Amino acid sequence: MGGRIGHREVQVKAPGKVNVFLRVGSQQADGYHDVAIAYQAVSLCERVRVVPADEFAVEVTGSVELSRVPSDDRNIAIRAAKLLAERTGYRGGARISIEKHVPVTGGMGGGSADAAATLLACDTLWETGLPRDEMLELARALGADVPFALTGGTAIGTGRGDELSPALAQGIFHWVFALADFGLPTPEVYAELDAHRARHATEITPADDAPTVEADVLQALRAGNPRMLAEAMRNDLQAAALHLSPQLTRTLELGEASGALAGIVSGSGPTVAFLAADLDAALELQVALSAAQLNVVRATGPVHGARVIE
Length: 310
Ligand code: ATP
What we know:
The structure is a single chain. By secondary structure, this protein is α+β, with helices and mostly antiparallel strands. It folds into 2 domains: 2-167, Ribosomal Protein S5, domain 2 (2-Layer Sandwich), CATH 3.30.230.10; 173-301, GHMP kinase, C-terminal domain (Alpha-Beta Plaits). The protein has 10 helices and 12 strands. The strands form 2 sheets. Strands 1, 2, 3, 4, 5, 6, 8 and 12 form an 8-stranded mixed beta sheet that branches. The protein has a 4-stranded antiparallel beta sheet with strand order 9-10-7-11, sandwiched between helices. A hairpin with a 4-residue loop joins strand 5 (154-158) and strand 6 (163-166). Helix 1 packs parallel to helix 2 (110-126), helix 2 (110-126) runs antiparallel to helix 3 and helix 6 runs antiparallel to helix 7 (226-232). The radius of gyration is 19 Å and the shape is globular. Residues 68-70, 74-77, 98, 104-112, 114, 145, 186, 267-268 line the site of adenosine-5'-triphosphate.
């Protein structure tokens, strides 16, 4: 086999994300919702290492709770590697090692980052040279957040969140993430939102068919201004996540009382993301929330998407 393979090992780093804006449109006939998302890739990253093998296998280590991560064919990294092999006609396999630092089922796209990292790592390992647009197409087939984990930076996602366009952004935003010791499956949070909208159909304005990201969010990102962004952040899934996990309300209150400019449930939760004014404020917030027994990590954004580590 050795002669066919140029690399003995490839390592890729891919970022988790925070949705600084997430609007959920009305439910479509296929059950999915159109969304409008402003994504920011953050410095909480996954590392994926691949080595050649005859079959496909995965092992998972890392700094976050790992009990909910499958280590068989259900792992999205294996699905990504198999999809690439199928598309390119590659006949071998890969042994995949994931080092996880993005909370599992935390609303920060950790599985999506693993999928994106594995696509890039295997394409490099196998020298299959898949064009970028085809890689994005495979990413989309694996999950709505996977294309963004490949591209990183700051982007707007529409459709299911996977139709990406880059957003102008400058500066560095400082975040403190409060990790929960439980997960919230994304479909349950959407179901809760649908139930809420059905119960209150007569009182609330119907959801948009084609939601968009509001101008003040784009302006805040473009200006690199955390105070403006704090004012503009919004997540339509937050009320549903809080309904399912009322204890997150206390987390949000604690962060805002400890100097955060604003707190927001990240994606479908249960991670809560706090935006700080600068590095010093983020460090102070991290200390205050740790003292209140919360499990917190600090990160910055935006960072680049999946990249091979030399
Ligand atoms: P998103 O924000 O994209 O909805 P998330 O961050 O909430 O995702 P993930 O941690 O990406 O959640 O995915 C969690 C689900 O995916 C769990 O049901 C888990 O069992 C399954 N899964 C499959 N592969 C992986 C992986 N490599 N890492 C984490 N979870 C995985």
